[in-house]
Specification:
Structural class: alpha+beta
Distance between the termini: 39 Å
Largest sheet: 4 strands, antiparallel
Length: 742
């Protein structure tokens, strides 16, 4: 008998709480599909950094399990309360509390098992979709095939089943306290809405708005962020979300009490009363749902940022097929060239030196002007605070400015498919990352680039006509050259009182700025290169040496691994299995930084895309589940009360409202209940997304408008939102519009 009763109740629950049943099916499918990626042997064999994917998806699973456990616990208790009168009747006819408890647990487990079974079937389809998307993102071919793993099934079942068991165990305590009187009258408890101190509570609404405004202003303009300040604002934001609904409910109640002009228009009084009563009884639930919406929207917006980065910037990050760094300026790269010639077809190879002259003029300017450093290395006079720089051991830039000879620069431009440039003696070019250029513009007018600060002594001869001094200096090579101050037509002469000669540094004139991609994350400089003529470069000291190669055809899949396996005295193996050199600088890209000794573009781009895809998948995983959970609670709340609302709408029908008018009232009621949390969440998450998007563009060089990330995330969110709203609206109409309203 109990088995038949349990089965009948399961069928009825699946029908009455269809949205909840479908959501649990979708959630179990999502969990199974993402867990299958964790246990995929092919993905584990693709990259040595597959552990990052496992860690991120595992971390996402932790948060997903928490929220799914909350949903199951909420729904189990919610259904228990809605069926309290039924359980009271069971007690009246002689059933024991233990029997009722076992019956309810059996029903819940059967409902969960049915949703899980459906989720497994749907999850296999979703698995193929996720794998196809992943392989497309990392630019690899995917052939559809089913992957079945016992570990995946056990992990998904453990997470899903554990959430159900915990929720049911928590309900056992409630069954012990059941009595017939409480069960028969429990459904009337929500009808008792206490309205007290509403005049004072309504001020919580403007206070919430004031805090959000202060939060936005501090977010964009406050500079001294630290852990206590961040925690304080996050705590204030959470409190604001919850008290906001108390303020809105009190404001609506006060508006009705003072008989505002709008309450007597149409069915506004009915709708406002319905809305305020829901806010009063569900303000904590709505606050929780708003928090979930905020997290879901932020997760989706951040995922779009990383996707935009890998589509816009990553392909331009490494314009050459192969690059090798060496701190040894006498390195011939013999072993690397032998390997390349053996493994693939070399089209062109170039060995060249990056040079330095002991100055750090460009470094000092960037350290004191870029937003990345935020004034941390600027002294009171606006100059470089070298003590602070040394204390923090910053390695964004090399110790000295990095120079490259014009002939080598033009060879590199040719290899990158760019046109050559010309440069006259006494001039220099600045090749800068486009991201840095977007922030700084042309700052060469503020620089004094000395080509040869140790040029020696200068001889002075006076011009008999003009009286001006022509200054010539002897270089290290014995050549004679004319030196002129680029910022003045006259040359400043400093006489040596001992020798009678004049000492004067050689300044170069700026001749332009170029921003094409040139692999400037530590190889061809860090963020920038100063391009000088070959004669000027010859007087500088070699700093480090590079090998740049273009291949005839794609690189083998294991070429980077073989290059990293070559012995090297100045580099070590990092956690990703690639060689890194402690002498390398990294530039100021803060979001995605990949500094390695050896670069093979065809090997690194899929690997970095895989790493970024791990972040994207984890964020989408969390966001999708959070949205489904929150919308399920909204839908079930409305549909479960449809029987109670049926009487109220029948009264509206009896006083003259037709079916069309009642349908419009229902639409307005549901729209108000649905739009309130999403619009509030959009305000909060939109502000944070704007700030994060702006920062992301600054640090990565992407060009998408900061509002674009949130706009697309909100659009995707509304698509899912609309599905749940339509399902709820149709179900509500079916339950409310009984024969009496037709």
């Amino acid at each position: 008998m109990f088995s038949k009763l349990a089965l009948r109740n399961v069928m009825r629950s699946a029908r009455d709480y269809l949205v909840y049943f479908l959501t649990m099916t979708v959630v179990s499918a999502i969990m199974f599909a993402f867990h299958s990626l964790l246990f995929s042997k092919e993905i584990q064999q693709l990259f040595e950094m597959a552990v990052i994917f496992a860690v991120l998806v595992g971390l996402a699973t932790f948060f997903v399990v928490l929220i799914v456990a909350w949903l199951i616990n909420y729904m189990v208790r919610f259904i228990l309360e809605k069926r309290s009168r039924e359980f009271g009747i069971y007690l009246l006819i002689g059933m024991k509390k233990k029997e009722i408890s076992r019956l309810y647990m059996r029903e819940s487990l059967l409902l969960g098992a049915a949703a899980f079974a459906g989720g497994l079937a749907l999850g296999m389809l979703l698995q193929q979709i996720l794998l196809a998307i992943l392989y497309s993102m990392i630019m690899m071919e995917y052939r559809p095939r089913l992957e079945w793993s016992a570990g995946c099934l056990i992990t998904t079942a453990a997470c899903y089943g554990g959430c159900y068991l915990l929720a049911l165990l928590r309900c056992r305590g409630k069954f012990r306290k059941m009595n017939i009187h409480a069960l028969m009258g429990s459904q009337k408890q929500n009808e008792e809405i206490r309205e007290s101190h509403e005049q004072a509570k309504r001020w919580l609404l403007p206070l919430s708005g004031a805090f959000l405004l202060a939060f936005a202003l501090f977010l964009f303009f406050f500079k001294a962020w630290n852990v206590p300040v961040i925690l304080g604002f996050l705590l204030g934001l959470v409190v604001t979300i919850y008290v906001f609904y108390t303020g809105v409910a009190a404001w609506v109640i006060c508006y009705i009490r003072r008989k505002g002009s709008g309450i007597f228009k149409g069915q506004n009084l009915f709708l406002l009363r319905q809305f305020s009563s829901k806010l009063k009884t569900l303000r904590f639930t709505l606050g929780t749902l708003t928090s979930l919406f905020v997290l879901a929207l932020l997760g989706c917006a951040i995922a779009l940022m990383f996707n935009d980065y890998q589509n816009q910037t990553l392909l331009d990050k490494w314009p050459f097929d192969v690059m090798v760094f060496s701190s040894d300026t006498s390195d011939t790269f013999r072993e690397e060239l032998d390997l390349l010639n053996r493994e693939c077809s070399v089209e062109e190879a170039l060995i060249y030196d990056i040079r330095q002259n002991g100055t750090d003029t460009v470094n000092a300017w960037l350290y004191t002007h870029l937003k990345t450093f935020g004034g941390a290395y600027t002294d009171e006079d606006g100059g470089l605070d070298r003590e602070a720089l040394g204390r923090d051991e910053i390695w964004s830039y090399y110790e000295h400015d990095t120079y490259l000879a014009l002939s080598d620069y033009n060879r590199l431009r040719e290899m990158a498919g760019l046109l050559p440039v010309e440069l006259e003696e006494g001039e220099y070019l600045l090749h800068l990352k486009e991201r840095v250029w977007d922030e700084t513009g042309d700052f060469t007018g503020e620089l004094e680039i000395m080509a040869d600060p140790d040029s020696g002594e200068a001889e002075v001869s006076a011009d008999p006509v003009s009286g001006k001094a022509e200054v010539t200096a002897e270089s290290h090579s014995g050549e004679q050259r004319t030196m002129a101050e680029p910022h003045s037509e006259e040359t400043e002469v400093m006489a040596n009182p001992v020798s009678g000669t004049t000492e004067h540094p050689t300044y170069l004139r700026p001749a332009g700025i170029y921003t094409e991609p040139l692999s400037q994350d530590g190889h061809n400089g860090a963020d920038y290169l100063l391009i000088v003529t070959d004669r000027t470069a010859e007087r500088m000291e070699p700093y480090y040496r590079l090998l740049t190669v273009n291949l005839d055809g794609p690189a083998p899949d294991d070429l980077l691994r073989k290059l990293d396996a070559l012995p090297s005295g100045d580099s070590t193996i990092d956690f990703g299995g690639h060689r890194e050199n402690t002498d390398m600088a990294c530039g100021t890209d803060n979001i995605v930084v990949y500094v390695v000794t050896n670069i093979v573009r065809d090997n690194l781009i899929p690997e970095v895309k895989f790493m970024l895809s791990s972040i994207i998948f984890a964020l989408v995983y969390i966001g999708l589940v959070f949205v489904c959970v929150a919308l399920t609670v909204l839908s079930v709340q409305q549909l479960s009360d449809s029987a109670k609302y049926r009487f109220r709408y029948q009264v509206l029908h009896q006083i003259g409202l037709g079916q069309r008018e009642i349908s419009k009232v229902i639409l307005k009621q549901l729209a108000g209940f649905y739009l309130c949390p999403i619009l509030f969440a959009a305000l909060i998450s939109g502000t944070i997304s704007m700030y994060l998007g702006w920062k992301f563009n600054v640090h990565t060089g992407t060009h998408t408008a900061a509002a674009g990330y949130f706009g697309l995330a909100f659009l995707l969110f509304l698509c899912v939102y609309a599905v749940y709203f339509v399902v709820t609206y149709v179900g509500f109409l079916r339950n409310v519009l009984a024969k009496d309203c037709r």
